[in-house]
Amino acid sequence: MNKVFFFLMIVVPFSFSWTFKPKPKKILVFSKTAGFRHSSIKQGKEAILKLAKENNFIADTTEDAAYFTSKILKQYTAVVFLNTTGDILNDDQQKAFEKFIQSGKGFVGIHSATDTEFDWPWFCKLVGANFANHPKPQKATLDVTDASQGSTNFLPLQWTRFDEWYNFKNRNNDVKVLLTIDEKSYEGGKEGEYHPMSWYHEFDGGRAFYTALGHTEESYQEELFLRHILGGIKYVLNKESGLISPLSYYLLFTFYFVLTSTVPAPLYE
Q1: For the chain, N or C: smaller number of CB within 10 Å?
Q2: Are residues 196 and 22 in contact, defined by beta-carbon separation less than 8 angstroms?
Q3: β-strands 25-30, 57-62 pairing
Q4: pTM exceeds 0.70, yes or no
């Protein structure tokens, strides 16, 4: 009994120390454009790099589609499409990205990620919709429809801010909506009373989060918007805490076996 007690006092804290200090996860921030190019991409990359440094994950940034191979993507836990536009991946790169998501990885789409790859039906379902059009940038009021998720649980239930507000087509109705926009609060909305602007879902083995916000350079200095993005990133990274890692299980089993094994007594004539 004393051996078991000693084992619990020494080995279990050591084992859990491996769980609570995991290796930082990596994300790839991709901002290639083949259509309209947002001036806010620079500010967006800088903001996400700062969020990564402050929140124990690693962010790489690129506009090189050559990163989209299975060999390169396997080092990342999630990919962020930051204001991407147009046809930015070839067929092989699309297949590599599909396999990436199917392996349980994550995707974050920001603003014009929905103005990307219109001829790729799988991607439309992943990102959740296709961009249709937008009015001029202006102030509008967003309604929080799900305050339980990490990207919205700190927001006011009515959130008024300045941005460019998208109308969408080809919506994936299986997503879980986080924010809708009140079309009575601005001019140019074309979807009526129910106009989703941010959502998340599990898709094809992975996780996805999208926000239509993030057109302006000033967005990436807004605390609430940055926390909104961070919550989406954390969701797709599927951060876990308090779970025993495989290494911890191995250590527990090994030390327990050593401490509780019976050593044969010597034989005397």
Answers
A1: C
A2: no
A3: parallel
A4: yes
Instruction: Return the closest-CA partner of residue 50 out of 223, 240, 268.
Output: 223
Cα 238 from Cα 217, distance rounded (Å): 28
Q: Has residue 18 got a pLDDT over 50? A: no
Q: Where are the beta strands (DSSP E) in the chain?
A: 25-30, 57-62, 78-82, 106-110, 130-133, 138-144, 158-163, 167-169, 176-181, 196-203, 206-211
Q: What average pLDDT is seen over the chain?
A: 88
State the pLDDT confidence band at 238, using cuts at 50, 70 and 90.
confident
Query: Token pair for residue 249?
Result: 């299980």
Beta strands in 120-228 (DSSP E): 130-133, 138-144, 158-163, 167-169, 176-181, 196-203, 206-211
pLDDT in tens, 116-167: 999 999 999 999 999 999 999 999 999 999 999 999 999 999 999 999 999 9
For 178, half-sphere exposure in the C-beta direction (CA atoms, 13 angstrom radius) is 28
The enclosing H or E element of 60 equals strand 57-62
Could you tell me whether strands 196-203 and 158-163 are parallel, antiparallel, or unpaired per DSSP bridges? unpaired
82 three-state secondary structure:
strand
Pairing mode, strands 78-82 and 106-110: parallel
Domain boundaries of the chain, sorted by first residue: 2-258
Enter the CATH code of domain 2-258.
Answer: 3.40.50.880
Task: Tell the residue number behind the tokens 């279990």, with chain if given.
Answer: 12
Residue 169, strand partner residues: 130
Tell me which residue of 106, 132, 107 sits closest to 118, measured CA to CA: 132
